[in-house]
Hints:
- The protein is mainly α.
- It has helices at residues 6-9, 11-42, 46-84, 88-133.
- It has one domain (6-128).
- The protein is built from 4 helices and no strands.
- Helix 2 (11-42) runs antiparallel to helix 3 and helix 3 (46-84) packs antiparallel against helix 4.
- The longest helix has 46 residues, at 88-133.
Amino acid sequence: xxxxxxxxxxxxxxxxxxxxxxxxxxxxxxxxxxxxxxxxxxxxxxxxxxxxxxxxxxxxxxxxxxxxxxxxxxxxxxxxxxxxxxxxxxxxxxxxxxxxxxxxxxxxxxxxxxxxxxxxxxxxxxxxxxxxxx
Length: 134
């Protein structure tokens, strides 16, 4: 496969948008944790503590998604430098590692979405139980 200086540059918009989405997720989860923490301080509740633990797992995944995504972007830039310097083989290897890191970041994203969806199902189950009782 032939690789040019523009090949790794193709990932820049995708990785940048992913990092923006990851940051938005991080900010949303952080805000939820702050709100739930305040609620828990006012009135300790087992359910709120469970939600905070769930959000803490998501926060851990999002942090890893961001770190791995940034590493992928860094390796894309480094790959471009290597290609510019004429190191084609090292550039290809670096680009391949960058793609692998991007895939790992996306896999963490899928897991984080699953955890989020499960948390919403638990939250909605309370409404379903309440409507059955009426």
